[in-house]
């Protein structure tokens, strides 16, 4: 059975700040799953980048129903302090969650998004910005059944110039390695 393949540039930052980088081709079937036990507080994951397009803005306006002219009217937006149209703030949350999926290893172990907290819209995002996710494990605990874990992920969306555009926490329920056995 063909599962599909994709190329990904992966970067992992260790707790002591060393950066390792590798360019590899993975298949879903051969990726190493990441479980609760692998997510020590302080571990950092960095996603590949994703460029925001005109189509992204339009489709988000269609799905959300938010056609405010700051997003959809070039002439109106030109008169604002931003000087151009800005991407919807909640679209950044969707990008963060999508980029989390591109990290790899969580496909078979992530169970549920539990919450978003202290999410800040620090700077505007514009069409043409390339955004990547930096995710740090801020904390973790076992769920009451002991077969699943709860992980607090501190997520930062960072644009091409290194500026943080959004920042917040996202709770994740994830499988424990032992829950896969037996």
Keywords:
Thiol Ester Dehydrase, Chain A; alpha+beta; single chain; 4 helices; 8-stranded antiparallel sheet; 182 residues
Number of strands: 8
By DSSP (H or I, 4+ residues per run), the number of helices equals: 4
Shape: elongated
- What CATH architecture label applies? Roll
Q: Domain count, please report it.
A: 1
Examine the coordinates and then state which fold CATH places here, giving the name of the CATH topology.
Answer: Thiol Ester Dehydrase, Chain A
> What profile does the largest beta sheet have?
8 strands, antiparallel
Structural class: alpha+beta
Strand fraction equals: 35-45%
What separation lies between the terminal Cα atoms? Answer: 26 Å
Q: What is the highest CATH level, the class?
A: Alpha Beta
């Amino acid at each position: 059975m063909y599962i599909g393949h994709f190329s990904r540039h992966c970067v992992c930052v260790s707790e002591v700040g060393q950066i390792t980088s590798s360019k590899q081709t993975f298949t879903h079937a051969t990726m190493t799953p990441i479980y609760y036990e692998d997510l020590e507080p302080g571990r950092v994951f960095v996603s590949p980048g994703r460029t925001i397009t005109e189509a992204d803005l339009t489709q988000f306006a269609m799905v959300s129903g938010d056609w405010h002219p700051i997003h959809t009217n070039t002439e109106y937006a030109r008169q604002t302090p931003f000087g151009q149209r800005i991407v919807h703030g909640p679209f950044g949350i969707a990008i963060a969650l999508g980029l989390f999926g591109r990290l790899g290893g969580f496909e078979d172990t992530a169970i549920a998004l539990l919450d978003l907290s202290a999410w800040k819209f620090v700077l505007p995002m514009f069409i043409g910005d390339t955004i990547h996710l930096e995710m740090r494990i801020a904390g973790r605990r076992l769920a009451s059944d002991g077969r699943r874990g709860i992980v607090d992920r501190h997520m930062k969306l960072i644009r091409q110039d290194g500026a943080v555009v959004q920042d917040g926490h996202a709770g994740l329920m994830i499988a424990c390695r032992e829950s896969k056995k037996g």
